[in-house]
Amino acid sequence: GDAETLEDGIKVAQQVWTIIENSASYGFNCLSGNTKLYRQKNNTKFSPTIAEMYRIKNDKEYAKKTGHYSLYQKYNSQGYGKVLSLKDDRLYENQIIDIYKKGIKMTYEITTDDESKVYATLDHKFPTMQGDKTVKQLKIGDVLYKLDGHEKDLLTKLVKIVNIKPYKEEEVYDVSVSENVSHTFTLDNGIVTHNC
Q1: Which residues, other chains included, contact 101 with Cβ-Cβ below 8 Å and sequence gap of 6+?
Q2: What is d(CA 96, CA 86) in angstroms, rounded to the nearest whole number?
Q3: So what's the pLDDT on residue 180?
Q4: Cβ pair 142, 133 in contact under 8 A
Q5: What pLDDT does residue 1 have?
Q6: Residue 82 above 80 pLDDT?
Q7: Residue from 184, 5, 12, 187 nearest 112 by CA
Q8: Half-sphere exposure of 155 toward its Cβ, with a 13 Å CA cutoff?
Q9: 27: part of which helix (H) or strand (E)?
Q10: How many angstroms from the chain centroid is the CA of residue 167?
Q11: Is 81 exposed, middle or buried (0-12, 13-18, 19+ CB in 10 A)?
Q12: DSSP assignment, residue 37?
């Protein structure tokens, strides 16, 4: 009777909660909307943030108003283009699958010894020599991969984290890339980061 129905309901609720908990690490794995991606072949002077890329693709009127209607068409017919992804300490071209708006979340500022900065949520991952680590797991002295500045060779170097501090609550985004190389991508400052 009622006891069995209640027990079944509790089991279903527990299963749903487990699914939510298991997916939570993916749902908040995000970067600041002000982040820019490293684009190897950018023939234009326009260097959009990930928030601008998302808005241009998803808001036709905004794209027209800002003079980026051709990008709107390109993003919707061919995708966002390519980024550089990490594999075996080198960077290779890789396809951006999509950019997802994830809402307003607290971001943290990670600063490296060469004064590069990245703004990400606590659960955002970075590839390290010890495997993937979230911002929450990173500590001062840990090292991150960075484009070595020699675009032709696409080698990486290591940069040391010198500071991690809360930054602000802001709109955050997830950039999804193809698994053909790896689920990593390079930011405009050369730092290599991870998607969900």
Answers
A1: 51, 54, 171, 173
A2: 14
A3: 85
A4: yes
A5: 59
A6: yes
A7: 187
A8: 5
A9: helix 2-27
A10: 17
A11: middle
A12: B
Q: How far apart are CA 128 and CA 89, in angstroms?
A: 10
DSSP 8-state secondary structure symbol assigned to residue 49: B
Region 50-58: mean pLDDT is 97
Query: How does the average pLDDT of the chain come out, rounded?
Result: 86
| Strand (E) or helix (H) holding 155 | none
Q: In this predicted model, what pLDDT tens digit does every residue of 136-192 receive, in sequence order?
A: 999 999 999 999 876 666 889 999 999 999 999 999 999 999 888 888 999 999 999
Per-residue tokens: 180: 């053909």
Report d(CA 160, CA 38) in Å as an integer: 20
Tell me the two tokens of residue 155: 């080698």
3-class SS string, 62-131: HHHHCCCHHHHHHHHHHCCCEEEEEECCEEEEEEEEEEEEEEEEEEEEEEECCCCEEEECCCCEEEECCE
In this prediction the pTM is 0.82
Contact yes or no for 159/178 (Cβ under 8 A): no
